[in-house]
Amino acid sequence: MTGQQESAHAVGSIELNKSNGIATVSIANPRKRNALTQSMCIGIADAMSALDRDPEVVVIALKGSGSDFSAGAALQDLEQVLFSASANEGTVDYLSRADEAIGTVRKPTIAVVEGICMGGGWQIASACDMVLASSNARIAITPSKLGILYPRAGVERLVRRVGADRAKYLLFTANEVTPELAERWGLVTELIPASAFAETVEARLGTVAKRSQFSIVNIKKLIDQPAGPDRERTWNAAWQEFQGHDDLAVGRAAFKSGYRPEFLWRVSD
Description:
The protein has a 6-stranded mixed β-sheet with strand order 1-2-3-6-8-10, with helices on both faces. It has a two-stranded antiparallel sheet with strand order 4-5. Strands 7-9 form a two-stranded parallel ribbon. The longest helix has 16 residues, at about 40-55. The chain contains 12 helices and 10 strands. The protein is an alpha/beta fold. The radius of gyration is 19 Å and the shape is globular. α1 (about 40-55) runs parallel beside α3, α6 packs across α7 (about 165-175) and α10 packs antiparallel against α11. β2 (about 20-30), α1 and β3 (about 60-65) form a beta-alpha-beta unit.
């Protein structure tokens, strides 16, 4: 799955690889530090939708190609990325459409962050369920450097993650924060030494892929769903289903016998 050239300024693609139940979606625009063009945002959304329906995939990783995650929206194509003209909708924010597509995936999604992760790059990473970051990560929320209004989805998630005062600090100053501070504030989930990053990420992805997807998918749904009657109904339905579910039987039998369980349940349409 690849993006197409949008203008004379920016070319990029979204690359897809699948192995052992793990799908890796790679942001590839290395000459621009993996900056996101309109077609790349569309490519991320399309990839997430397709992988959510793919019965062979249980975990989705989102990463940058090469040594960086993403520098955010491609500046030369900013209008096409953040406020592209649309006859029906006025303008379209394709970055936030990619964000929304990541957030609606039922399966676990994990951002794998090395090098530059700035501006809209952090927004896309933080849309995933977890952000695994290398100790060489460079993180900043940079719209005020460029006169950009950060998309609403990114602002609201930033406030939820770090609190209003820290969100204002990050947005007002556009200062880069150390990886250690990023972890402490909640901008990333786990900080991993660069020397052990590849093997640790592989282990984390493998662990999630081996766990009960029935448990993971239902817990993710419950965590992400706003409080209210629908959340109560979702919880009650899941609680009733789990009591007689095959994954519970598999897990209990494996625990009693001392072997690793092989859970077979998968998301279905």
